[in-house]
Amino acid sequence: MTTGTPTKPYSAASTARRRKLPSQALVGYLFILPAIVGFAVFYLYPALRGFQISFTNWNLLSDPQGVGFQNYRDAMQDPKFWSALGITVKYVLWNIPLQTLLSILLAVAMDRLVKSMFVKGLLIVPYLLSSVLVGMIFLWMLDPLLGIVNQWLANTPIGRQAFFNDAGQAIPTIAFINIWKHMGFNALLFYAGLQAIPRTVYEAAAIDGSREWNTFWKITLPLLRPVTVFVLVTSVIGSFQIFDTVAVTTQGGPVDATKVLVYYIYQNAFAFFKMGYATAMSMLLFALLVVFTLLQMRLLRAGESDLE
Amino acid sequence: MTTLTPTGRAQDVQRPKKAFPIGRLVAWACLLLIVFVSVFPIFIVLKTALTGNKALYTEAASLWPSQPTLINFQRVLGLLSPEAAQAAGGSGSSVSFATAMKNSAVFTGLIVVGQTFFSAMAAYAFARLRFPGRDFIFTLFLIALMIPGIVLFIPNFITVKNLGWLNTMPGMVAPFILMSPFAVFFLRQFFLSLPRETEEAAYIDGASPLTIFFRITLPMSQGPLVTLAILTTIGMWNEFFWPFLIAKDEASYTLPVALQVFKTQTPQGTPDWTGLMAGTFIAILPVFLLLVVMGRRVVESLAFSGTK
């Protein structure tokens, strides 16, 4: 893991280096010093501190009071926690399958139809925008009165839609917006994966008389498995942390219909100043994501065996 | 038929012979539709930003403003007096997008330079130098890749508050400027793949690790460094949650924060859409320019980010 792939023996040089070990260690520590400071202060310490805060009640003003597992017990009995988790899962279920499917199809289209860098550039424009901008743009486009989408819909049998203002439509709408934002980028990842599949495999399939559709299901999709797993798991982890779009468009409304987990955590921390409870819930989210990451390891191994 | 793909390779030219290219036409239509859906919202942003406030109501469904005006840009950039801005349809909310633009540029610039440089130093040490504890520390960095933002943000907020850095640029850049686990991991992988021979020769000539790093490794790594810088630029330009927590004072807003505040400042009733869209367009412009100037590079960087 640490040795890369040395191709030639370099005994003279490596003994020279071994002799230099003490000075190299000093330089090594100097080189990692800035990164270590950043890591220790803003990753390691907060991770441990967060864990510690989660066992206290703390409003930022008075001293934290240890309460043992109370915050975790509270979370288990808090209907709003479960509802927030449920809404998050609902969002993930709207977001991920559609986004992944569309991205794969788009990647195949990129591979088979266009090589143009210009078209690929256009497709990733949404990904380059911040979630705040994206939220703002769709808030405007989907505005009940003046938004262009409702201006159009008004003249069709569908009629005007409330989108963000309707408890049932709000989550699918937010999911659609993030599909719009990420589809081109994910397609680009799948496209890169497609490029890695040897052309000879396709030629062989063509010679065997495999139809387009068959080739896609029997060859392309299985060989894309490692990329698929990567994209799927990273986007699931990202989806579980949805916050920006909600903060900009609905702020959890209407009537809590879009109060996703991170938004609820944010509210507890920075609106109700329940730091202990908020960190306890973030730890639960972290645990959930670790489970997904372990699943990822599993699936990735399955993906590797699939390749050959 | 072959004229469809003037640049097509042999297999592309052969394919349409077998089947009538109806499938291909449908695929093209779908692709064009997706390209349209990807860029159309940006067009609406520009159209709205160029629309006068009164025309907004009468021309909601049209695709081009009958009397394009730059007044929205002028007022969100603070080029008009408050009275003139209100006369032009402003809501009375005042956020200086010029200041926000400057803050965003400083915020992004500092982090891109700092994070790339310090991460490169650490990555080099992890890849090439030997010192006790190296692999253990690197493993910690890898684990940190999995921690969700919200877990870190709450304790980090407290740290920055205790340092007295709320509302300041140091507070905003602190968690990012010294490292990111992804940057260290990404560059380490690349440094491992660099041939060792040049370095070994320099070692024998008596060069210090410092000289080797600056004179050999960095110059040989321009591609990955630029890739990383692009990814960091996009990520930081769009970062919302952290600056949103730290910058509570107008003078320290970044663009995404300024937009969100501009929106929520609007007194009840309809938001100031023309102003919001002018602000949105201003925030889009720099990433859009990045894409135009470095198109291929940006696309490749994004594609690469998935194959880490």
**What fraction, in percent, of the residue positions of chain A are helical?**
over 70%
Number of domains of chain A: 1
Radius of gyration of chain A: 25 Å
CATH superfamily of chain A: MetI-like
- CATH fold group of one domain in chain B: MetI-like fold
Tell me the name of the CATH class of chain A: Mainly Alpha
Q: Which series of helices and strands of chain A comes N to C?
A: HHEEHHHHHHHHHHHH
From the N-terminal CA to the C-terminal CA of chain A, the straight-line distance is 22 Å
> How much β-strand is present in the residues of chain A?
under 5%
| SSE-based structural type of chain A | mainly alpha
- Tell me what the CATH architecture of chain A is: Orthogonal Bundle
User: Which two chains form the greatest contact, residue counts included?
Assistant: A-B, 110 and 109 residues
Total beta-strand segments of chain A: 2
- The helix count of chain B comes to 17
Polypeptide structure, described:
The complex is a heterodimer of chains A (308) and B (308). Chain A is mainly α and 308 residues long. Chain A has a single domain, classed as MetI-like fold, CATH 1.10.3720.10. Chain A is 73% helix and 1% strand. Chain A has helices spanning 11-19, 21-53, 70-77, 79-112, 117-128, 131-141, 148-153, 170-195, 199-207, 212-223, 225-240, 244-249, 261-270, 275-307, and strands spanning 56-57, 65-66. A two-stranded antiparallel ribbon of chain A has the order 1-2. In chain A, strand 1 (56-57) and strand 2 form a beta hairpin. In chain A, helix 4 (79-112) runs parallel beside helix 8 (170-195), helix 4 packs antiparallel against helix 11 and helix 8 (170-195) runs antiparallel to helix 11. The radius of gyration of chain A is 25 Å and the shape is globular. Chain A starts with 10 loop residues before the first helix and ends with a helix. Chain B is mainly alpha-helical and 308 residues long. Chain B has a domain at 102-264: Orthogonal Bundle (MetI-like fold). Helix content of chain B is 70%, strand content 0%. Chain B has helices at 10-18, 22-49, 55-58, 71-76, 82-87, 97-128, 134-144, 149-162, 169-177, 181-193, 197-204, 209-220, 222-237, 241-246, 255-265, 273-293, 295-305. Chain B is globular, with a radius of gyration of 25 Å. At the A-B interface, helix 1, helix 2, helix 4, helix 5 and helix 6 of A face helix 2, helix 6, helix 7, helix 8 and helix 9 of B.
